[in-house]
Specification:
12 helices; Phosphorylase Kinase, domain 1; Aminoglycoside 3'-phosphotransferase, Chain: A, domain 2; five-stranded antiparallel sheet; 2 domains
Length: 350
């Protein structure tokens, strides 16, 4: 436990007491506790060994910053729906401590980065991972979503507002004039209108390679506590236009078409025209990527987490790619270039 740093002595004592209370019923070895991972919030995760083998995960979610109740709720929802999500074995929601089953330490991202993309075997592994992820996504989207919040216009807009506040002004140091602010306002309105009319399903909201685990079976699904009822294309955009790994668009389209065919057979509301579905996918991805630019900048400037800065260029390219493709979004693409102080040649538009 000496590897774990505590800024608050009272929090450390509360954790140690709670862990001691769980050690007997769950056959834990408290002395084996060590860091497992952290995420882009105030949550931390520790791993602890069991006395009879195996390991468990402990979530530390300080109640002044985090509410672990949505995690508990959505974990049950996913597990009841057949997803490979962690089981909540013990919980103290008031103090923000959860004991969870351990889905391992090998993320999809780590497995993908270990592959040789020039080899047939490497590509086979990659395709297999995405096939399993898409199957899990369809399974997730078939779960009834009435018990989670709606991904409504207000939430879509709050997320988009992170872009001018944290990325444009705070990170890039750019002050928009009245004309540019209106341009951005018009673009946001266009994006929201396309996204808010999409059919809705259960949305994980961070369904990507860092939150999917290689388990030897169905993918382990993590970081689902912010699940909502929202646009059917959202999680697919998170997965195929991942902030942490990039695929050629031809590969994205192939995987998206496979998903769309399987989703239609499963009765999900993806429509009968793949071209329309792909348009919706792109616009939904644009909303997400503008939000992510703001979030990653905020993590650096507000929270002191600079590890996401290296991912900003890829996220910017995703956003610019879509804004450049659709003629009504061309003013947004030029604004993105202005903010970045670059001039980009663009191809066809719709």
């Amino acid at each position: 436990m000496s590897d774990i740093l505590w800024a608050d002595g009272a929090r450390q004592r509360a954790f140690q007491q709670w862990l001691g209370e769980q050690a007997g019923p769950h056959r834990l070895e408290p002395s084996s506790v060590r860091p497992a991972s952290a995420d882009a919030s105030f949550r931390r995760y520790f791993r602890v060994d069991g006395r009879e083998g195996g390991s468990f995960i402990i979530m530390d979610a300080p109640p002044g910053h985090e509410d672990c109740r949505p995690f508990v709720q959505v974990a049950a929802l996913l597990r009841d729906g057949g997803l490979n999500a962690p089981e909540v074995l013990a919980r103290d929601e008031a103090q923000g401590f959860l004991l969870l089953s351990d889905l391992g330490s090998r993320t999809f991202l780590a497995e993908l980065q270990a592959q040789d993309f020039s080899s047939r075997d490497g590509l086979k592994v990659v395709d297999g991972l995405y096939h399993s992820a898409l199957e899990s996504l369809i399974q997730l989207q078939r779960i009834e979503a009435t018990s989670v919040p709606a991904y409504d216009r207000a939430l879509l807009r709050r997320e988009l507002d992170l872009f001018p506040e944290w990325y444009v002004h705070r990170h890039r140091g750019v002050t928009l004039d009245d004309t540019q602010r209106q341009l951005l306002e018009d673009a946001f309105e266009l994006i929201i209108k396309v996204c808010e009319v999409q059919p809705t399903v259960l949305v994980h909201r961070d369904f990507h390679s860092r939150n999917l685990m290689v388990t030897g079976g169905a993918p382990g699904v993590l970081d689902f506590q912010d699940a909502v009822r929202g646009p059917v294309t959202y999680d697919l955009a998170s997965l195929l236009r991942d902030a942490y790994i990039e695929w050629d668009e031809a590969i994205q389209i192939d995987w998206a078409a496979r998903y769309w065919e399987r989703a239609r057979k499963a009765g999900l509301p993806v429509g009968d025209d793949f071209g329309t579905f792909w348009r919706d996918f792109e616009w939904m991805g644009l909303q997400r990527h503008l939000k992510v630019l703001g979030i990653f900048a905020r993590l650096n400037h507000r929270d002191g987490k600079d590890g996401y800065l290296k991912d900003l260029p890829l996220v910017w390219r995703y956003a610019h790619h879509v804004a450049s493709r659709y003629s009504v979004l061309r003013p947004l693409s030029r604004l993105l270039e202005h903010i970045e102080n670059v001039e980009v040649k663009f191809g066809y538009t719709f």
